[in-house]
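Appendix B. Raw example, untouched.
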Amino acid sequence: MKYRITLALALFSLSTASFATSLCQEKEKDIQREISYAEKHNNQNRIDGLKKALSEVKANCSDSKLRADHQKKIAEQQDEIAERRQDLKEANEKGDADKIAKREAKLKEAQEELKALEARDY
């Protein structure tokens, strides 16, 4: 029994260590993956832009800054949702079915964007 617990703890430690990369390292890996994809498709403009972005990340990235930027994006998206709700309320008051449908679609889109932002790691 002790051996199973020891083995389980050892495996857990190894798996945790492999996931213990910083947010900046993850961002670098994402950019590297995009560069390789752009190279496969011979998209030189994209490659140049991504290489510039990679050098910026390597020079200026910090996990706390990434988290703060992400929280700022979430707050901005929440403001966008509040705006969309107000637009929908006004359309409902006017009774214009076409505008109501458009406002509902825009609100739903903004809510989906917020869910996607909140689902990200940082």
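End of appendix B.
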